[in-house]
Amino acid sequence: MILVLVGPPGAGKGTQAKLLCARFGIPQISTGDMLREAKRSGTLEKRYLDIMDSGGLLPDEAVIGLIARRTVEPDCSNGFLLDGFPRTVPQADALDELLASQGGTRIDAVIQLDVARPLLEERLIHRRTDKRSGQIYHLVYNPPPPGAELEHRADDRPEAVAKRLDAYEAMTAALLPFYEQKNLLHRVDGVGKPDEVTHRVLSAIGRPGSGGE
Ligand code: AP5
Questions:
Q1: Phi-psi region of 25 (alpha: psi -120 to 50; beta: other; left: phi over 0)
Q2: Measured on CA atoms in the order 186, 31, 122, 138, is the torsion positive or negative?
Q3: Is there an atom of ligand 1 within 6 Å of 84 CB?
Q4: Ligand 1 centroid distance, CA of 150 (Å)
Q5: Residue 73: is it exposed, middle or buried by C-beta count within 10 angstroms (0-12/13-18/19+)?
Q6: Strands 185-189 and 28-30, how do they pair?
Q7: Contact by Cβ (8 Å): 180, 2
Q8: Structure confidence by residue, pLDDT tens digits, 86-102
Q9: Ligand 1 within 6 A of CB of 137
Q10: DSSP designation for 18
């Protein structure tokens, strides 16, 4: 199964990705996580680091290469879930070409999580992530347990959040119709408890009550 999660920053892609991947037994492939890992290990080019921290999008070629290398790893043989990729039509075209070159597999569904902008801002500014486990928390809605080693993302500062939301709005103008025309796009209300949102996603893709592959 190949799933794609799209949606604005803070829509809950990372949160839903973890829940869906556990259900279907497929890996989560998040370009944002891969880039942050490269940042931590000091291998992310300085020009990309600056773009990321300020809330801009990296050039298409920088992320397409990451996906090409990751999707051929053995744990992807039964499928995967893409979180945060593709974000532009050139990235979506590159993904189609990549899948065609990897034995003709196809995307099963593209899920768009819809959340209104004021709530997105509130979610992002109060987000914290546990450095060790990668678990995502919210200081109000899902407070971290005592002892968690918390990280506040550089791009969750208010000015970077505004830039990321603007970049998403500009990008989706073209990407969503691209998948709508292919009859792959499922729009899901991303407001509510994470489990409720997962339930909506599973119903939207025709897998209600799905317990795994
Ligand atoms: P990326 O890491 O992909 O960030 P993003 O798209 O901005 O999305 P976020 O991770 O901020 O939010 P999310 O939707 O995953 O929400 P989450 O589940 O954490 O990308 C970061 C940067 O990398 C980009 O800006 C760009 O520079 C670069 N990049 C990455 N991919 C790229 C690409 N393809 N092309 C070019 N550049 C690329 O939830 C957010 C908060 O809300 C959390 O606190 C969570 O606890 C809370 N929450 C989640 N769900 C709920 C709920 N149902 N109810 C209440 N609270 C909730």
A1: left
A2: positive
A3: yes
A4: 16
A5: exposed
A6: unpaired
A7: no
A8: 999 999 999 999 999 98
A9: yes
A10: H
